[in-house]
Amino acid sequence: MSRVLLVCPEPLGHGHPAGVGVRFVEIARVLLNDGHDVLVLSPDAGKVDGCRADHLSHESFAAHSVASDVAVVQGHVANAFFLHAKPVPTVVDLYDPFIIENMNYWAERGAEVFQYDHLTLMGSLVRGDFFLCASEAQRLFYLGLMVATGRLNPMLFERDPRLESLIRLAPFGVQAPRPLKPQSSHDILFGGVYDWYDPVRAIDVVARVRESIPDATLTFTRHPNPDITPQGKLAEAIGYAQKKRYDFVRFEPWAAYAERAEYFEKFALALLTFPRSLETDLSMRTRIYDYLWCGLPIVTSSAPGTDELLVRYHAGTVIHDDAVEHHADAIVSILRERATFDAMRTGAQQFVREHQWDRTLAPLREFCRAPRFEKTKELFASQPAITERPPSILDRLRRRLRA
Question: Which residues pair with 167 in a beta bridge?
Answer without folding.
Answer: 131
